[in-house]
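In the design runs reported in the main text, the only information available to the sequence generator was the tokenized backbone. The following block is the verbatim input for one such run; it is reproduced so that readers can re-run the procedure and compare outputs position by position.
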């Protein structure tokens, strides 16, 4: 292989040992089509594709990283391939907002201490983590949209490293108190569209329930705009309430300030410890890279259609496309008895 197309493997392609509980393994098989056989074949297929794909210059090959994409795409190898490629491309193209996911940075630490976004230490009856959002504490005159993307990225990337969460998914609880029109101006409509669409289709997380409370009428137009961008499947999982008391969620999962038992500060301190345990791997992710010259401008900007079959453009698009097509057959054809 030429020096120009040399590749770095940031983590090894290790022999996978499943850490999931028996109950979670049963959920994975029922909901995601994951069995020991399907998992081993899918990992082999993805690793072979990543080794041969000339667009990658530095990648993670560990099972934890690859399985998060396979699980969100229900073990469709072609869909996982598209998501991995788009994910690394967007991290690189939008690096100013999605790299340096370090919770110890002063601004990140400040936003976390404010309770802008954190994860409850408790799990619901289905074993799912609960992400708590308080966007009203985000000062749009003091912080930037890059700060917002980065602190949310820290949260999501930390959760993605947990395989139980990869399978069971997440519950989201958002309090809209204090959100006003200036918050809506942090992103242009075009930026908002691409962030929302890529957030659902590219970030490998399973969003199972979404609760919103205290949405002020003055920003309802923005909520309606966002709802129109997400899939019908996710829209059906969104529930909005006018008062905290009305929210149909086990209050023990929430901070004491929202009817739970544990004070918010204590929850945030525990979440900081969890983020600290994943800090090194999150920073290693910054080294993942693709060859930007092999992508169209639209793909680099996050256009959803730009990475689909035949849509990526570069000097050697035809040869790359031929190589890719030979490796992206339907995964279910690979499985043998």
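Verbatim output:
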């Amino acid at each position: 292989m030429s020096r120009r197309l040399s590749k770095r493997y940031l983590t090894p392609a290790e022999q996978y040992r499943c850490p999931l509980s028996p109950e979670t393994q049963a959920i994975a098989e029922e909901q995601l089509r994951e069995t020991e056989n399907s998992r081993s074949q899918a990992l082999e297929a993805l690793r072979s594709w990543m080794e041969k794909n000339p667009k990658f210059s530095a990648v993670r090959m560990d099972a934890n990283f690859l399985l998060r994409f396979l699980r969100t795409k229900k073990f469709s190898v072609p869909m996982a391939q598209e998501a991995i490629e788009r994910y690394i491309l967007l991290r690189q193209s939008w690096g100013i907002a999605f790299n340096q996911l370090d919770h110890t940075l002063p601004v990140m630490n400040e936003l976390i201490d404010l309770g802008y976004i954190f994860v409850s230490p408790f799990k619901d009856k289905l074993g799912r983590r609960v992400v708590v959002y308080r966007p009203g504490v985000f000062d749009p005159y003091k912080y930037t949209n890059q700060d917002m993307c980065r602190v949310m990225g820290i949260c999501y990337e930390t959760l993605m490293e947990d395989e139980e969460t990869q399978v069971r998914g997440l519950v989201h609880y958002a309090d809209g108190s204090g959100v006003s029109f200036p918050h809506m101006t942090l992103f242009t409509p075009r930026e908002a569209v691409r962030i929302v669409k890529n957030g659902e289709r590219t970030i490998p997380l399973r969003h199972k329930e979404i609760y919103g409370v205290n949405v002020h009428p003055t920003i309802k137009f923005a909520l309606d705009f966002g709802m129109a961008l997400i899939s019908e499947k996710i829209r059906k999982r969104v529930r909005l309430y006018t008062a905290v008391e009305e929210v149909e969620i086990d209050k023990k999962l929430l901070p004491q300030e929202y009817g739970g038992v544990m004070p918010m500060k204590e929850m945030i301190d525990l979440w900081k410890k969890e983020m600290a345990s994943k800090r090194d791997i999150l920073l290693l992710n910054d080294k993942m890279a693709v060859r930007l010259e092999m992508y169209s401008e639209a793909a680099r900007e996050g256009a959803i259609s730009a990475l689909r079959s035949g849509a990526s453009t570069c000097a050697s698009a035809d040869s790359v496309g031929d190589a890719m097509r030979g490796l992206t057959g339907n995964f279910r054809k690979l499985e043998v008895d």
